[in-house]
Amino acid sequence: MSKVLKYLPEVEGDEQVFVAQIIKQMNESQALQFANLYRARRREPMTVLLMNLFGFVAIAGVHRFYLGQIGMGLLYLITGGFCLVGTVIDCFRYESLSFNYNQAKAQECARIVMDTMPDTPDGTDDGGEAV
After folding, report:
1. Contacts 24+ apart (CB under 8 A), 87-96
2. Domain-by-domain residue ranges, the chain?
3. Which of 19, 24, 67, 84 is a good FRET partner for 53, with 20 to 30 A between their CA atoms?
4. Is 84's pLDDT higher than 60?
């Protein structure tokens, strides 16, 4: 858990536990690379909530577009957020919506980091030279 607090102090709750499980098997350079990549791709729950609230006064479904859910965004846009019922429900679900998005992005970032920076026990890269 200390790696999460060191590299991603802004992450809280279930997301913190999930990210801790991902980076516990990474070395320091991999964890730093993961943190930088993940920070650029994750979505803040408060931003999702604010975009959802924007749907009450202007364009419903903006938060769904922000989370990469294009189909649901279009559906919300056409139906006015299911006559605002879906928008109201999403006011209570904003944390789980952002957590699901961030969970997928964390797994994607971990895969990228592990593929580009393989962990070697002796501190050398694949060519045998010291890193």
Report:
1. 87/52, 87/55, 87/56, 87/60, 90/52, 90/63, 91/49, 91/52, 91/53, 94/45, 94/48, 94/49, 94/52, 94/63, 95/13, 95/45
2. 2-116
3. 19
4. yes
